Amino acid sequence: QVQLVESGGGLVQAGGSLRLSCAASGTSVGVNVMGWYRQAPGKQRDLVATITNGGATNYADSLKGRFTVSRDNAKNTVYLQMNSLLPEDTGVYYCYFRDLLNRPYRTYWGQGTQVTVSS
Known about the structure:
This protein has strands spanning 2-7, 10-13, 18-26, 32-39, 45-52, 57-59, 67-72, 77-82, 91-99, 107-109, 113-118. By secondary structure, the chain is mainly β.
């Protein structure tokens, strides 16, 4: 079982920045993909960005250039640096963990952290 603890959400004005963190713990943190999804009110949960153990990243096309995902493998922690925030970036941001060590592969989610961008 993997546990995910998120931090760093909050209220920020448009144009500002926030940094989210998510620390993973448990028995399956060896080989994995970590990252972030977000869900705006009344909408589905969508990809923000993911990163593998080896550092390969995948971003939602619309967020490239403003958001940067990174990770510290020693700390089993993934980060999301969000710059030039827009009101449409408002939503609940969920940490994502895909276990690629133990079959069947499983996906875990954090509890979510609220990001609100005011205009």
